[in-house]
Amino acid sequence: MSPKVMTLDDLKLIKGAHAKELEHIKYIKEFRNKTIVVKYGGSALEVQKVISYLIEDLIFLKQLHINVVLLHGGSRQLNEVLKSKKIKHESIDGIRVTTKEILDHAVAEFTKVNKSIVDEINRKGQDEIKGIGINGNEVPVTISEYLDKAKYQYVGHIVDVNVEFINALDSQYIPVLSSLSQTKDHQALNINADTNAAEIAKKLNAYKLIIVTDKDGILGKDGKLLSSVNESQIKEMLEEGTISEGMVPKVLACLSAIEGNVKKVHIINGTKQDALVNELFTDSGIGTEIVKQSKLSKIKYA
Ligand code: ARG
To answer: Is 202 near ligand 1, meaning CB less than 6 Å away?
Structure first.
């Protein structure tokens, strides 16, 4: 059999593959031993398939010696329970008014979500990587105060973060944190999961905060995905209303993380398989990255 002659296209393919490999290796090296906080939430996301994608990516990151901390919400599960029990609930300024009864259900539901994520990590991690659940109502990872008891009832805002619970863990563990907190007198409070993630990322001096949603990222005025934006551009977009509704609290949490020295923040669409890995290990990413002031002068479209 005569040997196959390489065409120019074959060579380009090899060269291209090599360039891609180098691109991946560059980031693998950069992120090694760094801490990445991943916030996972959004009602459409809390489905088994998406959790499965994300956990596969997180285990992969751990295998590359990147520290990951996972934070989650549980609003879809909570809403379902409230609906089935016919418990009325309302939101003021986008904040869920949390009565004692709703808080009890939130504790139960968020704990269940936490356990199912931890179980899935343990199943997929095959003894090499393990998940460990940290429920903020039981373990004082964050300390909070009532946001406005008369208005929102059992809703808190974080006043202190004790990351030693996370730092004390062996490197084979992925800490999985729920979005509950407690007062210094150990009263459980419901907290916003994005803010929680930003506060913990800041206190951990995280290299990155990644918000996993069911949206592709931040969209510009023309509705196109923005690949890269900086702090002042984000502020401008908030002022002119280009960023609106559900994206606002997320983006505010991102800004607070960036201002608090988290190097970079990303918003990505978790319903796409390998989303996290594609964002982290390619130059162009797949979502929106938010960087500090000096990095960019012009908005970069995807
Ligand atoms: N992989 C690089 C990082 O994680 C670049 C990501 C770029 N992402 C983007 N949406 N433009 O820092």
So the answer is: no
Q: Quick check: is 2 in a domain?
A: no
C-alpha of residue 87 to centroid of ligand 1, in Å: 43
Which atom of ligand 1 sits closest to the CA of residue 288? 10
Residue pointed to by tokens 């808080």: 103
Name the least confident of 4-13, 94-103, 236-245, 267-276: 4-13
In a domain, 180, yes or no: yes
**Whether 16 contacts 9, CB under 8 Å:** no
For position 1, what pLDDT does the model report?
55
Number of compact structural domains in the chain: 1
What's the domain range around 237? 8-301
Task: State the DSSP code for 243.
Answer: S
Structural domain includes residue 3: no
CATH code of 37's domain: 3.40.1160.10
**pLDDT score recorded for residue 264:** 96
- Distance, in Å, from the CA atom of 279 to the CA atom of 268, rounded to the nearest integer, reads 8
Burial 111-146 (b: 16+ CB within 10 A, else e): bebbebbbebbbeebeeebbbbbbbbbebbbbbbeb
> Is residue 230 lining ligand 1, measured as CB closer than 6 Å?
no
Tens of pLDDT, residues 92-127: 877 899 999 999 999 999 999 999 999 999 999 999
pLDDT at residue 18, as a whole number: 78
Has residue 102 been placed in a domain?
Answer: yes
Q: Is 285 in the pocket of ligand 1 (CB under 6 A)?
A: yes
pLDDT digits (tens, 9 = 90+) for 204-219: 999 999 999 989 999 9
Please give the distance, rounded to the nearest whole angstrom, from the Cα atom of residue 240 to the centre of ligand 1: 26
